[in-house]
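Per reviewer request, we include the raw input and output of the structure prediction for the construct analysed in the revised manuscript.
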Amino acid sequence: MTAALGRIILGRSEVAMKRAFIIVGWIEGISLLLLLFVAMPLKYIWMQPEMVRQVGMAHGLLFMLYVVGAINLALDESWGWKKLTMALVLSSVPFGTFIFEKKYL
């Protein structure tokens, strides 16, 4: 019901919603990798914390978009609890969003 209402209000088809979710997943995955493998070493090894604040903020916003998108898509496509749980768990693991897209979408 909620996803259908969102489609009516936003005028998005199921294909467009899935495509947007995949794009957000890729960007969110890249932001997590940047945070873990570039920004964190800069902060803790070379004492340059500036990038953590910027990449961390972007990653946080992208993570929230990913979670909302996963819930919205789960409601729209009638995902089971296992698939939704995998989407949410893998979103916090490096390379997880890429694995979820390949294996579950």
